[in-house]
Amino acid sequence: MENRPVGVLLREWRERRRLSQLELSIQADISTRHLSFVETGRSRPTSAMILRLTEQLDVPLRERNALLLAGGYAPAYPEGRLDGPQLKEVRASLRQVLAGHEPYPAVVVDRRWDMLDANAPIARLIEGVAAHLLEPPVNVLRLSLHPDGLAPRIVNLAEWRAHLLSRLERQVAATGAADLRELLEELRGYPGGGEAPPKRAQDVVVPFRIRVGNAELRFFSITAVFGSPLDVTVSELAIESFFPADEATSAALRRL
């Protein structure tokens, strides 16, 4: 990205968001003429202008830093290490959420869906998967859909696979990230258990149904992210929490 003009990159983000120059110029409170000059390279945008445009385009913080570098400026957003001292409180809050969610499973992932932390019930769910899928970094999408992973035990594999691929497709469309696009193509190549069943009128969420021992556990999931993050690492964290979809699952998890 850094080898390409910042104006070209901004235009690509505008087109990815399906905005015209007029629409973006109104949102960013600049003239359409000036925006056109920025995109064509006739005008060099200030760092403040780049940040204003990327804010309106909802560009992820990592890519905002890359756009600033492409424009000849220093990054505006720090990128701390989750295991570093600057993110100590963030790490503690994540651990508190994970522990508080037990006996139900929950996992912390980054933008690539790599597992950064998990609570104890996750270990029970992933028992028996191939060792190569548990070598760091553990990608939870690969772990879920790979035939050596959870896939053989997911009762509604076709439905769950379609749900996960749809989420990843939207993420690729929103970010344009090449590594996520590669992951999507990899996952599409896995066997998927046939055609996903049609949605029923009474369905409110896509269930996750998995066999653990002799029991079938049924979950629905909730994804949580940090509000108003100013650090790249924090902005890319998400907690995927699984809740029992019926009393039998709740009772089974309490026993486990």
TrEMBL record:
Domain HTH cro/C1-type: 10-64
InterPro entries assigned to the protein according to its UniProt record, in alphabetical order: Cro/C1-type_HTH, Lambda_DNA-bd_dom_sf, MLTR_LBD
Origin: domain of life: Bacteria
Matching Pfam families: HTH_31 (PF13560), MLTR_LBD (PF17765)
Name this protein carries in UniProt: Transcriptional regulator
GO molecular function (one): DNA binding
Signal peptide residues on this chain, from the entry's feature table: none
PROSITE patterns per record: HTH_CROC1
Organism: Dactylosporangium sucinum
